[in-house]
Amino acid sequence: MKIDGVFSGGGVKAFAFIGALEVLEEKGFAFERVAGTSAGGILASLLAAGYTVKEIKNMLMELDLKQFMDTSIMDKCMPFWKVLSLYFTMGIYKGDAFEKWLYQKLADKNVYTFRDLPNDCLKVVVADLSLGKIVVLPDDLQRLYGIKPDSFLIATAIRMSASLPYFYRPKKLVNNKNKKSVIVDGALLSNTPMWIFDKDRSIRKRPLLGMNLSASYDQIAEKKITNAFNLSQALVTTMRLAHDARYISKKHTEDLLFIPVKEVDVSDLSLSKDAKMDLILFGRKRATSFLTHWPN
Question: Of 50, 74, 185, 208, which has the most beta carbons under 10 Å away?
Fold first, then answer.
């Protein structure tokens, strides 16, 4: 059965998506269109490029995530410089190594720009902090930045969507006001963008499935805020979830597979193979249970 899929952000927790995808494939589901934010955008782009779930699993299981912790020579040689650099660059790591890796993986399938994919089959969500907008790529490229979608690299779009604030340096694009826009992780404004493929359920061409790496919105734990660090964490988390919680709770709860990964930090690039496999098995377990009543 053909379906449309939407994948949330969640950093390295996204290994759980692989297990869910394995179960979906075993049950005969295949994606016609995919959309994603941050880590979910990575999975979406690989699926859109034609990778099988087995290929994705093998690729990511063998991947040394620590190679994506790319810093400048100054940062490595002068630790105090890292603090000063963070102030001006707004990110500990450059993100170039990740973008180059994804570029090559997509190139292996002869996919470079959005022109190389069927129309509307891949949507990537980013956050433009300068314009204060949720931006969908490639849809908004021409309108907001004067860029032709056919010429825009998918690896760059995903790199922008995965720019976790203060972790990866944000990308910048010149906007239609002739000023530089700071682009960051799309999960900051919409973690599970079900609205991209939103249609009246009665006239949908295909079922719509969302996958979210957190608990359902009515089960979000209360946060204890006692210092500035707690406050910053709570602000980011609330921004990530507030839009989707309001939207999805009303319209798409029954179409959303929650995979509440709690033990792994989103930015833990030292994740072991055993930890990766644990996440995959957890994703399988959640998907198996979910598919007993979906689609209905």
Answer: 185
